[in-house]
Design a protein that fits this description.
about 90 residues, 4 strands, about 20% helix, single chain
């Protein structure tokens, strides 16, 4: 089975969220077999920034749902949007 690369935009609940801590929380909640490849901060508006998180995960039934649900379960996360999915 091949791996896939998934790029997600993770929006915090507000500007007071520490994005470094959020990045660590994301790393800790990802299901087994998934790993963070790259994380980049991106400004949105009025001081709010999001995280562009690139995850490498096994290709499996259910697609990106397990990663999205795990990241969405973090209280500091407002929304998760999948921007790109590509097979490696």
């Amino acid at each position: 089975m091949a791996d896939v690369v998934v790029q997600m935009k993770v929006l915090p609940v507000g500007i007071e969220v520490d994005l470094n801590k959020l990045q660590e929380q994301i790393k800790n909640v990802l299901p087994e077999g998934m790993r963070i490849y790259k994380v980049k901060e991106e400004p949105i508006a009025y001081g709010l920034k999001c995280l562009k998180v690139t995850v490498i995960m096994p290709e499996a039934e259910g697609g990106t749902d397990p990663a999205e649900e795990a990241i969405s379960s973090i209280s500091e996360v407002s929304r998760v949007e999948v921007e790109l999915v590509s097979r490696l």
